[in-house]
Amino acid sequence: MTQRTILDVGEPFSYGRPEVLGSILTDFPFLVVLGCTVVGGILINAAYADGRVGVTASVVTIVSAVIPIIAALTIFGERVVPLQIAGIVIVVAGTAMLARRDETPAQSATHGTR
Predict the structure, then answer these.
(1) Cα–Cα distance measured from residue 9 to residue 1, given in angstroms and rounded to the nearest whole number
(2) DSSP secondary structure letter of residue 94
């Protein structure tokens, strides 16, 4: 995005210049990210208000790790190499394991510490 902005407004480049700020705010990927952030925040708040927090927190944790990856590959055209794919798999698997809970804190207190 920085290269595109420099080409749009010329040198010297500074985020403080009004032309640069205008170019960033009208950039398509920025608007997509901004829109997704607003809609996501509204949906998360609605889920917490209407759902069970334990289930909602697990789903939000996993989805918040997966959605940016999908967006990078499909919307923004990012290319990944096999090592990056392995890293993505590790991060998503780790997030899923951390979000998963087999016992409540009261149950683990009665069965000893984990």
Answers:
(1) 12
(2) H
The CB density around residue 5, as the number of other CB atoms within 10 Å, is 19
Domain ranges of the chain: 1-49, 51-114
Among 19-23, 41-45, 102-106, name the one with the lowest average pLDDT: 102-106
Distance from C-alpha of 8 to C-alpha of 29, rounded to nearest angstrom: 16
Query: The tokens of 24 are what?
Result: 């960033």
Chain segment 50-101, per-residue pLDDT in tens: 878 878 888 888 888 888 888 888 877 888 899 999 998 998 888 788 777 6
Contact 73/80 with Cβ under 8 angstroms? yes
Question: Helices 28-50 and 18-25 sit at what angle, rounded to 10 degrees?
Answer: 60
What CA–CA distance (Å, rounded) separates 63 from 86?
Answer: 18
68/88 Cα distance (integer angstroms): 11
Burial (CB count <10 Å: 0-12, 13-18, 19+), residue 34: exposed
What's the pLDDT at 88?
87
Amino acid identity of residue 36, one-letter, is C
